[in-house]
Automatic annotation (TrEMBL), chain A:
Organism the protein comes from: Spinactinospora alkalitolerans
Keyword vocabulary terms for this entry: Cell membrane, Membrane, Sugar transport, Transmembrane, Transmembrane helix, Transport
Protein localization: Cell membrane
GO terms under biological process: transmembrane transport
Pfam family name, one: BPD_transp_1
Family: Belongs to the binding-protein-dependent transport system permease family.
Keyword Cell division part of the UniProt annotation: no
Chief site of localization: membrane
Lineage: Bacteria, Bacillati, Actinomycetota, Actinomycetes, Streptosporangiales
Transmembrane segments: 32-59, 95-116, 128-148, 178-201, 233-258, 278-306
Membrane topology recorded in Swiss-Prot or TrEMBL: Multi-pass membrane protein
Gene Ontology annotations for the cellular component aspect, listed alphabetically: plasma membrane
Domain ABC transmembrane type-1: 91-305
Gene3D superfamilies assigned: MetI-like
Protein name, UniProt field: Multiple sugar transport system permease protein
Automatic annotation (TrEMBL), chain B:
Location of the protein in the cell: Cell membrane
Transmembrane segments: 20-38, 78-99, 111-133, 145-165, 186-208, 245-266
Lineage: Bacteria, Bacillati, Actinomycetota, Actinomycetes, Streptosporangiales
PANTHER family with a match to the protein in the record: INNER MEMBRANE ABC TRANSPORTER PERMEASE PROTEIN YCJP, MALTOSE TRANSPORT SYSTEM PERMEASE-RELATED
ABC transmembrane type-1 domain residues: 74-266
Taxonomy, superkingdom: Bacteria
Membrane topology (UniProt): Multi-pass membrane protein
GO BP, one annotated term: transmembrane transport
GO CC term (a single one): plasma membrane
Family to which the UniProt record says this protein belongs: Belongs to the binding-protein-dependent transport system permease family.
Predominant localisation class: membrane
The name this protein goes by in its record: Multiple sugar transport system permease protein
Pfam families with a match to the protein in the record: BPD_transp_1 (PF00528)
Organism of this sequence: Spinactinospora alkalitolerans
Length: 314, 281
């Protein structure tokens, strides 16, 4: 109560005193701070502080549970990481997953967005359906696809058999070579709609006159897409693909439900590996180091990508 | 001209083929989920599965509700999601007003935080959070989960509400001031009613993100007696694969309902918000 009441006198005194403010528009006025507190305190307590502490843990030998004192060990965790073949393989799997899912989400999402931007029948159905994967809880998306991929009771094998494309059964999520592509399909299914909707909104912002002018100049559909639509969409494209890449790199729940990282670690994304290290084996410091390493790589990849986009734009 | 028309018609056919392909890709897992949920266990065992259940039944729903403490888990999810939604809006509402109305460095900080919170892998947060909550005795407690959920959807809710506050013309507030209404009176009787749709949307967003959340629940709630719905659903699948397909499908369908209601309600607004965010970000 006192917290919410506090802003009033401060606000008044501030208004009646038009004196110079340091930093101009950038100054934090006290009433704003008072109103911010209910949000600021929990964010600092439960996100900012843990994040900072988490980064610190990456440089310690912190273990779960046991009453062992945590010691600062510098870069030791990172040296261990560099030598950890399990980490490298999960890292590689993570990159393959994140890059292919992001690329396919974009390609498929762009295709669907272009279609939905046309005056087609069934457009409403596609729009509605495109909302569903986005709305579904990730755990349920995972469970649902488990039903689809089920070796004997699943619909995928049955359909392929009906089409004469398959004679036996494929155990999609348990096959060493197929499991990763199989989960990539799920990743695209669940993420494509959001990409579509964002791109569609972007498309609707492209002035029609530009297209008409290009058409008069004799540009074909593909040429118009390359030279008119894409440049106009660039900010939206850059943002949505960057976000998708980050989200995909940090994916956990979907794959945890689908395969738990199996078979034989073939779908063990970095976050699944980190989760196991931290909460199955209790290596808190080591898992935190993994988190730091991954965020650095994500930022590096994004940096390169953003810079290239920036160059192309100029 | 004739050629163009012919090419156009060909293009149309191609477009419809592509659209049908998309529809099939989007729909087929969903259709299969629904189909499985209404099948008898006898039909499930058939080697040649059918799309449409031959003898549709509600048994799976009855069984799902009877098993695995699905009702208990759903109740806990409901409590956690409601509490997180109320908590996050209570935290975000004053702050969103401050962000929208006072130009300050906090604006930049808040936007920065929204972005940072997207980039950092959860593992960097969850380990220290787990340690903090353990210190506070909040591991294995729904209260701990509520705090975590509320804090984690705070950046987005803040952003969302701030947009709604900006939508309220400053002139309305000033006019109320001229008419002699005090600051709180103005906020309560002029601003608050106009923000109501935004608050409802934010409550629903908070509810659904908590309802859907899996990872923090997985780490914080070890005791099966207090696990939330997503955890209970995952227990349907053993390590050796899906154990009870019918009840699993039925329970999954039921668990999806709140999210679908939310998204159909908020569809238009969210689209706009996402895009604004995407372009600005």
């Amino acid at each position: 109560m006192s917290l919410t009441m506090a802003p009033r006198p401060a606000e008044k005194s501030e208004k009646s005193r038009p004196g110079p403010r340091r930093g101009g528009a950038g100054t934090t006025s006290r009433p704003a701070l008072g109103l911010m507190l209910p949000a600021l305190v929990p964010v600092v307590l439960f996100s900012v502080a843990p994040l900072v502490y988490g980064i610190y843990l990456a440089f310690t030998d912190a273990r779960s549970g046991r009453n062992v004192d945590t010691a600062f060990i510098g870069l030791e965790n990172f040296v261990d990481l560099a030598a950890d073949t399990d980490f490298w393989s999960s890292f590689q799997i993570g990159l393959v997953w994140a890059v292919s899912v992001t690329a396919l989400q974009f390609a498929a999402g762009m295709g669907l967005a272009l279609l939905l931007n046309q005056d087609l029948r069934l457009r409403w159905l596609a729009r509605t359906l495109a909302m569903v994967p986005w709305a579904m809880p990730p755990v349920i998306v995972g469970l649902m696809w488990k039903l689809v991929y089920h070796p004997n009771a699943g619909i995928l094998n049955a359909t392929l058999r009906d089409l004469g494309l398959l004679s036996g059964d494929i155990d999609w999520l348990n096959d060493f070579g197929i499991a990763l592509p199989a989960i990539i399909v799920v990743g695209v299914w669940t993420g494509m709609p959001q990409t579509t909707i964002v791109l569609l909104a972007g498309l609707q912002g492209v002035p029609k006159e530009l297209h008409e002018a290009a058409e008069v100049d004799g540009a074909g559909a593909w040429r118009r897409f390359r030279s008119v639509t894409l440049p106009q969409l660039r900010p939206v494209v850059v943002t949505i693909t960057s976000l998708n890449f980050v989200w995909n790199m940090n994916e956990f729940a979907l794959v945890y439900v689908l395969t738990q990282g199996g078979p034989g670690g073939r779908t063990r994304l970095p976050m699944l590996y980190a989760y196991e290290e931290a909460f199955r084996y209790g290596f808190f410091g080591y898992a935190a180091a993994m988190g730091v390493a991954i965020v650095l790589v994500v930022l590096a990849v994004l940096g390169v990508y953003l810079r290239r986009q920036l160059k192309d734009a100029q | 001209m004739v050629i163009t028309k012919g090419r156009r018609a060909g293009g149309r056919a191609l477009q419809y083929t592509a659209l049908l392909g998309y529809l099939a890709f989007l729909a087929f897992p969903l259709v299969w989920l629904v189909s499985t949920a209404f099948k008898t266990s006898r039909e499930m065992a058939r080697l040649d599965p059918t799309w449409i259940p031959l003898e549709p039944t509600l048994d799976n729903f009855v069984q799902a509700l009877g098993e695995q403490d699905i009702i208990g888990a759903a109740q806990r999810s409901l409590v956690v999601a409601l509490a997180s939604a109320v908590l996050v809006v209570a935290m975000a509402l004053p702050a969103s007003y401050a962000l929208a109305r006072h130009r300050s460095r906090l604006n930049a900080a808040a936007l920065g935080w929204v972005l940072v919170s997207q980039v950092f892998p959860f593992i960097l947060l969850i380990i220290p959070l787990f340690m903090i909550l353990r210190q506070l005795g909040l591991v294995n407690s729904l209260a701990g989960l509520v705090i975590v959920h509320a804090t984690f959807c705070l950046p987005f809710v803040l952003w969302m509400l701030q947009g709604y506050v900006r939508g309220v013309p400053r002139e309305l507030e000033e006019a109320a001031g001229v008419d002699g209404a005090g600051r709180w009176r103005t906020l309560w009787s002029v601003v608050a009613p106009l923000l109501a749709p935004g608050v409802v949307a934010a409550l629903m967003f908070g509810f659904v993100s908590s309802w859907n959340e899996f990872l923090f629940a997985l780490i914080l709630l070890k005791d099966p007696q207090i696990q939330t719905l997503p955890l209970a659903l995952v227990r349907f699948t053993g390590p050796e694969g899906v154990v009870r397909l019918g009840p699993l499908a039925a329970a999954s369908l039921m668990a999806t309902v709140p999210s679908l209601v939310f998204f159909s309600f908020i569809q238009r607004r969210l689209k706009g918000g996402m895009v604004a965010g995407a372009v600005k970000g």
